[in-house]
């Protein structure tokens, strides 16, 4: 068939014979002509020799036509060097292995894909950088300018890293995916490019991207041998190249390791939909792994089954050269082990200007947040706000931190909470209603501060009514607030009427501590300063309830307690003992106003014979 479609489009067949084992010569002549070319053969064009697109023209694919790769692992289907526009292109890997990627966009180019598909690639042999890596589209990190990938499908791209097809499973040989940003050598960048790559990837789908592994692997191995990512941006510890790339409204279906991974600056991900249908035999390791100066805004992820819970939903790995700004917002998923994780790669990693806002998961089995510094540093450089999580199982902890973080609003259900010294927390709503809860990583339920320093807390509300009469996790305590210099605006604790009262399960101490308001709704008491340290100031303490209790509201004192001032204590619960007791060894404790319903004959019990001063006492009939 020969002929013109119109004055601006010419059929490939105008330039020679097609339908041969290798249509390279005819197709390359059409490309070199500089005309807008139409690929219209329904059965496609077989290409065994690499094509080179270096014209700034349009290539249109009609009638389901495709370019079908018939080469081997030492070559690829095509290099693109110009600013070509591809409309409805179909690039078929024919279940073969190519070198690095089926199509590669070189430095100086700026192509466009509108619609179409890249699919059917399989890597079975490895050994070099170029054979260890197989992607649908490769884009140079250097100077690919104003490119567009729009509504393109990347599907059925696989790499074997198993004992049957490949041989000996090896870490780092199963890299595969839809799009990769990488130099043409398939090695990490060795320089910081000034003319970095710029473009958008919009409304694309990445489906069945996976490293094929042996069955029956344990967690360390199933993730170690897996490198199947929808999109990957390459960098290394010394060089994380700049780019300006937006990935918007992407759909990632059964990508074995991650939907996206970035080791480059300037990448912006938004409105991603990620799903694991069970077609991949192992759970995903990560939804998104980010780097310096990246943003991830808007993720809806479905693992659909607890057996496919993602290991670590969002990872932030900071490279040596610092970070300008990192934003993570509006993340929603159904099942995970860890929701958000930070990783310092070495002592040069500095965590700063990092904002996490609006992350939610109703089934977290291990931790909401975890941190590994590896010698790096963080001093309130990470701000987390509007996090809403609920534990699955009995062992979850909200955070495992090695450095101080700043938190806005936290809502956590059936998770123990530990904050190291110097953390900042505006508001926390904690709920404990799983009577089988045992915690993970700390001895009790809530631990705020450390012996060497406290935290700055706005308000913390704890509802343990659903925990019933169970003892604290590990028989230790429900809540302990400690550390020198702590500032706490409000503590509110609510328990069931059947909550255990034989011990003082809530503890508060530390030099120079200031607490605004303490409120207890239940028969429990708070132990203040009984463990350690001289004290500071508590503005008010209130115990609510109408049922009679046999324990004090406040147990004060130790050999180290001195100079404690309490503005007011109001015990509204009938009590068979004094509402306040000061233990021997304490000195200089003052309560301005004490209101009690004690039937013991006194609102306060002073074991020091004179070190407790109560300026105004109101004793109600019990």
List its salient traits.
single chain; 622 residues; eight-stranded parallel sheet; 50 strands; disordered N terminus
Describe the structure.
With 622 residues, the protein is mainly β. Helices cover 2% and strands 48% of the residues. It is built from two helices and 50 strands. The strands form three sheets. The chain has a 40-stranded parallel beta sheet that branches. The N and C termini lie far apart (103 Å). Mean pLDDT is 92; it is low at 1-7.
Short characterization:
The protein is mostly beta strands and 622 residues long. The chain has two helices and 50 strands. The model is unreliable at 1-7 (pLDDT under 50).
Explain the layout of strands and helices:
Layout: E1 9-11, H1 24-32, E2 36-39, E3 45-47, E4 51-53, E5 58-61, E6 67-69, E7 78-80, E8 85-87, E9 90-96, E10 100-105, E11 112-114, E12 117-123, E13 133-139, E14 147-150, E15 153-160, E16 175-181, E17 198-202, E18 205-212, H2 219-224, E19 227-233, E20 242-248, E21 251-255, E22 258-262, E23 265-275, E24 288-290, E25 295-302, E26 310-318, E27 326-333, E28 336-344, E29 350-351, E30 354-372, E31 377-378, E32 382-391, E33 397-400, E34 406-413, E35 417-419, E36 424-431, E37 446-448, E38 456-464, E39 479-481, E40 487-495, E41 506-508, E42 514-521, E43 526-528, E44 537-544, E45 554-556, E46 562-571, E47 580-582, E48 587-596, E49 604-606, E50 612-619
Parallel strand pairs: 1-2, 2-5, 3-6, 4-7, 5-8, 6-9, 7-10, 8-11, 9-12, 10-13, 11-14, 12-15, 13-16, 14-17, 15-18, 16-19, 17-20, 18-21, 19-22, 20-23, 21-23, 22-24, 23-25, 24-26, 25-27, 26-28, 27-30, 28-30, 29-31, 30-32, 30-33, 32-34, 34-36, 35-37, 36-38, 37-39, 38-40, 39-41, 40-42, 41-43, ...
